[in-house]
């Protein structure tokens, strides 16, 4: 396809040909009018990607389509193109390997480009061993739960044992913690952790979410750990759900949080003062922390569906007491109302939209199980508190559809 006017002479890209380029841009680099191209790789890229390509000048040299091109440059790009480049450089991408989107952090996008064009990881399977061997061991800087200091800790990930372990001492034989792959999640959080390679690892412990914050000074090392976790999760789910295809399993490997940020909240009586807390919405779990880097949540709210009488409303009840931010949110559940307040109207709008997306989605059987365990955990906590005061508490049961069974 001729993308340039009069290819025998130096020229610029014309507007008509730019419209045609949208058909050859792969995946996350898709842009209606790409303004840059790699002269060495023969692909068109968006402006954001062009900046990343500049970081590996020994592999790729970018040029704006608005500059003057000579005939040899035109011929090189015309000979390759995005579709052919994708077939070459992405021919053996593992199903579990994370393909970043335009909204992902710079680390993931840059390492994706380096993995393809610099290290040729998806042309030669042996280069994928760091994250596909089924076992990975190494040292990461881990944030201490109590003192907040980052210290070097040994981590070991084993698909065979179905666990991620970390050790407080280099020569320790007994791990400080054993994290089951079943509930493991990992998401990059460079801004929150304050490091471009910062990774947040979460898992369930006693049906409560536990956070671990780690980083490594080497970007490739950190992304390899991330994809090793995804590989372990992928192989675990293949065994757990033998009839499921890759398209069903891959979205379940890791997940980004739906929304995070500060809001104010009050207690169950709605007479307590509002307190500023950091909120994390992980699918149907709304967790709140005193500090964004806390290891444990101060509390969790399960967000069900509208079929189960969950609703979200803008504003607060007129009877609400205490000083609080001006932009309120009320979540109505079968048990009680939860009151929150946002600092700005834009934050209120974004939080309501996130809540509404979850509430509008029907609950899956495993989510009913999560609700059951959430209720049970709250009851067990109430029993412990009640025992201190000599109270007798009766259990609270969840009404489940008759077809569900948790054997």
UniProtKB/TrEMBL annotation:
Q: Where are the transmembrane segments?
A: 385-404
Q: So which domain of life are we looking at?
A: Eukaryota
Write down the Gene3D superfamilies for this protein, in alphabetical order: Arf GTPase activating protein, Pleckstrin-homology domain (PH domain)/Phosphotyrosine-binding domain (PTB)
The record's keywords, sorted A to Z, are:
Cytoplasm, GTPase activation, Membrane, Metal-binding, Repeat, Transmembrane, Transmembrane helix, Zinc, Zinc-finger
Give the UniProt subcellular location, in the record's own words. Cytoplasm
UniProt-listed PROSITE patterns? ARFGAP, PH_DOMAIN
Cleaved signal peptide residues? none
For this protein, the record's SMART domains field holds: ArfGap (SM00105), PH (SM00233)
Q: Which InterPro entries match?
A: Arf-GAP_dual-PH_domain, ARFGAP/RecO, ArfGAP_dom, ArfGAP_dom_sf, PH-like_dom_sf, PH1_ADAP, PH2_ADAP, PH_domain
GO MF terms held by the record: GTPase activator activity; phosphatidylinositol bisphosphate binding; phosphatidylinositol-3,4,5-trisphosphate binding; zinc ion binding
Carries keyword Repeat? yes
GO (cellular component) term, any one:
plasma membrane
Region annotation (Disordered) maps to 1-21
Residues in Arf-GAP domain copies? 1-130
Instruction: Classify the main location.
Output: cytoplasm
Record-linked PANTHER family: ARF-GAP WITH DUAL PH DOMAIN-CONTAINING PROTEIN 1, ARF-GAP WITH DUAL PH DOMAIN-CONTAINING PROTEIN 1-LIKE PROTEIN
Q: What is this protein called?
A: ArfGAP with dual PH domains 1
Q: What lineage is on file?
A: Eukaryota, Metazoa, Chordata, Craniata, Vertebrata
Name the gene: adap1
